[in-house]
Specification:
Helix content is 80%, strand content 0%. It is built from 17 helices and no strands. Helix 3 packs parallel to helix 6 (155-162), helix 8 runs antiparallel to helix 9 (223-250) and helix 9 (223-250) packs antiparallel against helix 10 (260-286).
């Protein structure tokens, strides 16, 4: 009976496991169906339906921006403060490659329509004509994806925070403001939106490919040109928004399809980007430009440390004066030799008037022998005179 009971329980467990696996499969299938229906909805979405989409979820970019700011600073200041850097290089490389590929595909789809718009309607038409002239078809669909891509691009900051890299103001400010602006531009169907989509897709296709090469350990040497391209994008953005405002306010009848709030926001945004990117470029490539050139020179002192240590090795040469101190001491020892004659001369003169002791006489014998040799010479003279 116990054996049958055990088998029965095992069968029930397998049934439960099968039910859970089946439920997971149903959930996965439901998610895939929803994703497919969502993509089908986006594919069939027309330009005239953009206000409904972005208006219905108008709160979404604001909620995402607040959650993004709270998350990145909490991770940086609390979670990663005492932890080692987390740098998933493979995942980072795949992420940058994915964004670069998406940007390339988007640019290839939007650029042809942008070119024909400029060729057919000129500069004025490209900023004044209603968005329906370009936002239908492939160009419009990829512009829609371009707007929505500003949400997953927030993940860029996650890699920086987890890797404990420098989180500069320009980085998170750019991510937040571009998300809010693009969402608003999609809601009002900005007439000049094709300018911004085409420029940004081009720059991002190059920028993210640069990040991909850096992530796989093949960092290019043309980062200067990436920053220059970003600065040129901001110049063009200021020019286009300024031109749009000029046509709208000076020729309102010929340029009526302009949303003033969106134009003002675009002008403020692009001008702030221009200032920040110029400051970034100047600080990195002009003020600090000699630093990369000196990097090899900075390594040379490290490699030539033995050359710097030569004075330390030649300390014996510096210690020669210390070794020659005995020569200085000899002069100190010779000082008594100089002083002895000065002391002995009065002592030698005294015995000429007094009877010195035998020891002193023995010491002064050389001094007394000289006059002893002279005395016989003085005595011979009287003998000659006696003859």
């Amino acid at each position: 009976m116990s054996l049958l009971h055990t088998v029965h329980e095992s069968l029930q467990g397998l049934q439960l496991q099968g039910a859970s696996v089946g439920a997971a499969a149903v959930a996965a299938e439901s998610a895939l169906n929803q994703t497919e229906s969502g993509l089908q909805y986006l594919w069939e979405l027309k330009c005239v339906d953009w206000p409904d989409l972005f208006g219905t979820y108008a709160h979404f970019p604001w909620a995402m921006s607040v959650a993004y700011l709270v998350a990145i600073f909490w991770l940086r200041d609390e979670v990663m403060k005492t932890r080692d850097p987390i740098k998933p290089k493979t995942l980072l490389a795949l992420w940058n490659l994915l964004l670069s590929g998406f940007s390339i595909m988007g640019f290839l789809r939007v650029a042809p329509r942008f070119y024909t718009l400029l060729a057919d309607d000129g500069l004025k038409g490209s900023v004044c004509l209603p968005s329906e002239t370009w936002c239908n078809g492939d160009a419009g669909w990829w512009t829609l994806l371009f707007i929505l891509s500003k949400v997953p691009e927030l993940i860029d900051t996650l890699f920086i925070v987890l890797g404990k890299g420098p989180l500069i103001f320009l980085h998170w400010y750019h991510h937040v403001t571009v998300l809010l602006y693009c969402w608003h531009a999609g809601f009002v169907r900005s007439a000049n939106g094709i300018w911004f989509a085409c420029m940004n897709l081009l720059v991002h296709s190059i920028m993210y490919f640069y990040y991909f090469l850096s992530a796989i350990g093949r960092k290019p040497s043309w980062d200067y040109y990436v920053t220059t391209l970003q600065i040129l994008q901001m110049f063009v953005g200021v020019f286009v928004t300024g031109l749009t405002a000029f046509y709208h306010f000076t020729q309102p009848q010929e340029c009526p399809h302009i949303d003033r709030d969106n134009t003002v926001l675009a002008l403020l945004m692009y001008f702030s980007y221009l200032v920040l990117f110029l400051q970034f470029g100047i600080n990195r490539y002009l003020r600090k430009r000699p630093a990369p050139e000196l990097k090899p020179g900075q390594e040379k002192p490290v490699q030539n440390k033995p050359a710097q240590e030569k004075p330390v090795q030649n300390k014996p040469a510096q210690e020669k004066p210390v070794q020659n101190k005995p020569t200085q001491e000899k002069s100190v020892q010779n000082k008594p030799a100089q002083e002895k004659p000065a002391q002995e001369k009065p002592v030698q003169d005294k015995p000429a008037h007094s009877n010195p002791s035998p020891q002193k006489a023995a010491q002064t014998k050389p001094a007394q022998e000289k006059p002893a040799k002279e005395k016989p010479a003085a005595a011979k003279k009287p003998q000659k005179s006696g003859k």
